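Duplicate of #3305? Posting structure anyway:
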């Protein structure tokens, strides 16, 4: 059985959890106690020397980094190649969004949310500006489209979903981004979709 080392508050882990469920794979969720530092203990570092979740264990195969895991699962277990089409242009377009998720999204919206969740002190103003810039760009791009790449959902949609859904927890309202809110609901309507665990921080705390 596939094992996913995860934490319920991790958007990176959530995107993998979604694909495992959507592909109807047999898997076990293994919680990692981040506040207790379990991810820095020798037994976990033996799986991922960088001390980060998620980590996927599939038999003797061990993969860390959420986007790398998405690529692996879609390549190995999606027989119809919907989630990662085997065409150079589609794959390049998907990689573009995986990179965006790993850098601009993680470095703005996800960082703001983590600061609220774990009471971290950060310089909010530039991160908030970047978050809104990114959301406006995605809104313009997504206008008139159902999915980020092509006519079917792909791992690009899963890679961006979790932290955009969590934007209010970082103090970023989605009210000005109705196209993205519709897209979020579209992802939530997928067969096998797994909801992200929400937290009472940021705008959710104020509402």
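Output from current build:
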């Amino acid at each position: 059985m596939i094992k996913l080392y995860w934490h319920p508050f991790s958007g990176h882990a959530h995107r993998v959890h979604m694909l495992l469920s959507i592909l109807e794979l047999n898997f076990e969720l293994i919680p990692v106690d981040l506040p207790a530092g379990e991810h820095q203990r020798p037994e976990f570092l033996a799986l991922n020397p960088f001390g980060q979740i998620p980590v996927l264990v599939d038999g003797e195969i061990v993969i860390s980094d959420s986007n790398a895991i998405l690529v692996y699962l879609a390549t190995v277990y999606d027989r119809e190649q919907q989630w990662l089409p085997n065409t150079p242009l589609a794959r390049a377009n998907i990689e573009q969004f995986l990179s965006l998720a790993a850098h601009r999204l993680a470095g703005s919206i996800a960082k703001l949310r983590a600061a609220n969740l774990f009471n971290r002190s950060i310089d909010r103003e530039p991160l908030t500006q970047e978050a809104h810039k990114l959301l406006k760009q995605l809104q313009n791009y997504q206008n008139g489209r159902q999915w980020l790449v092509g006519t079917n959902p792909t791992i690009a949609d899963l890679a961006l979903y979790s932290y955009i859904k969590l934007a209010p927890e970082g103090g970023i309202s989605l009210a000005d981004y109705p196209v993205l809110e519709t897209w979020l609901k579209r992802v939530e309507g997928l067969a096998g979709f797994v909801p992200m665990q929400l937290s009472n921080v940021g705008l959710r705390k104020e509402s």
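Confirmed duplicate; merging threads. DSSP finds nine helices and four strands in the chain. The chain has a mean pLDDT of 96.
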